[in-house]
């Protein structure tokens, strides 16, 4: 019986191993040798102990079966701490951000360099595209200059610029492509990426088209389109809610009223109750600090967790006070609510508190 149980455990362990990325505990030289023997390339994950996105990839992405199936078939996978045992290797391949993932051939030549975390599907797609000769930067440029305008090429070519921080060039490719399409082409499913991935604000032709034609997209992408529209409107409203528009002297009553009406006309407030945000924005415009802070206390628990965090973190922008009574009330307001903030927001709330309470200590 014990032997049977042991056999079962070994089989189960084997199944788990197959279902995740097999990072081998071997040296760099051993990885190159194994790649030569197995006719594969080498995939290296450079991480650090303090890197949050590195931990996310290790915990949420690489254990997935589809990720393991993809990487185990094509690569000898290894990972090195870029500040410890992998320090010299990281310097050799000019690794300066974390996580960084590189692919090498058996001659130790760099074939692909990817920085940052991504979800499983996007990460596999990035690696696949990066190793496809047809999607090399030089080849994509040649294809684009020859007049090719497929959704796949536009998506990948623009992304290649954006990943280099060349936003002007990347968005010009996207905007030129969008402008060249008929309405029917814009609504086609292969072109949905223009809206779901590359539409980042409401003051943009792509956003205006998406909102105007929101009910005409294919059902396969309609949910993603609706979600994108909701997030864009929320983001726009946050510029008022956070105090940015007031502090930068950009607040215009008519523009705010138009935004509010659009949110209501689109029924966006059915999925999320926007009334508390409206109330706080309008109270801040019309009332003094004490009245606004009282409204914050009244509406705080009706906000979702993200907007609660935003309110706390922007309180010193919303209330630019110097008098001790207001500062004390602001400090108490934050301290009473620290326990219900998201963990990531607590440290930022602490900085806000430091700013407020340092003024309280001044004579």
Write the layout of secondary structure elements.
Elements (H helix, E strand, L loop, with lengths): L1 H17 L9 H11 L2 E7 L4 H10 L3 H10 E7 L5 H6 L7 E5 L5 E6 L4 H12 L5 H9 L5 H12 L4 H14 L2 H5 L5 H4 L8 H8 L6 H23 L2 H4 L5 H13 L9 H12 L2 H11 L5 H9 L1 H4 L5 H12 L7 H19 L2
Helix pairs in contact: 7-8, 8-9, 13-15, 16-17, 17-20, 18-21, 20-21
Please tell me about this protein's structure.
The chain is α+β, with helices and mostly antiparallel strands and 363 residues long. 62% of the residues lie in helices and 7% in strands. 23% of the residues are buried.
Task: Pick out its properties.
363 residues, 21 helices, single chain, globular, alpha+beta, 62% helix, four-stranded mixed beta sheet
């Amino acid at each position: 019986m014990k032997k049977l149980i042991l056999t079962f455990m070994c089989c189960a362990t084997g199944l788990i191993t197959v279902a995740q990325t097999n990072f081998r505990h071997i040296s760099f030289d051993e990885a190159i040798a194994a790649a030569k023997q197995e006719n594969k390339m080498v995939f290296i994950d450079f991480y650090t102990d303090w890197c949050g996105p590195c931990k996310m990839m290790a915990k949420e992405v690489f254990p997935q079966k589809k990720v393991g199936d993809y990487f185990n078939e094509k690569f000898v996978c290894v990972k090195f701490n870029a500040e410890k045992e992998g320090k010299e290797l990281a310097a050799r391949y000019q690794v300066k951000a974390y996580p960084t993932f590189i692919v090498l051939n058996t001659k130790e030549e760099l074939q692909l360099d990817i920085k940052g975390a991504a979800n499983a599907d996007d990460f596999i797609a990035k690696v696949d595209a990066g190793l496809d000769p047809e999607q090399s930067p030089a080849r994509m440029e040649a294809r684009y200059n020859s007049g090719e305008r497929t959704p796949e090429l536009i998506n990948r070519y623009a992304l290649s610029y954006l990943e280099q921080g060349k936003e002007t060039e990347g968005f010009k490719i996207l905007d030129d492509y969008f402008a060249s399409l008929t309405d029917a082409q814009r609504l086609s499913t292969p072109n949905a990426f223009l809206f779901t991935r590359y539409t980042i604000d409401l003051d943009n032709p792509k956003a205006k088209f998406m909102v105007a034609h929101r009910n005409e997209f294919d059902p396969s992408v309609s949910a993603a389109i609706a979600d994108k529209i909701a997030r864009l409107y929320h983001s726009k409203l946050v510029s008022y809610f956070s105090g940015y528009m007031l502090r930068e002297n950009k607040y215009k009553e008519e523009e705010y009223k138009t935004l509010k009406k659009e949110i209501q006309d689109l029924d966006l407030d059915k999925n999320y109750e926007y009334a508390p945000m409206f109330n706080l924005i309008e109270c801040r415009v019309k009332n003094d600090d004490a009245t606004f802070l009282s409204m914050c206390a009244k509406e705080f628990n009706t906000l979702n967790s993200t907007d609660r965090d935003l309110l706390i973190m922007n309180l010193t922008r919303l209330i630019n006070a110097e008098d001790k009574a207001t500062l004390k009330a602001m400090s108490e307001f934050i301290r009473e609510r620290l326990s219900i903030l998201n963990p990531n927001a607590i440290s930022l709330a602490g900085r806000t508190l430091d700013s407020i309470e340092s003024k309280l200590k001044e004579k």
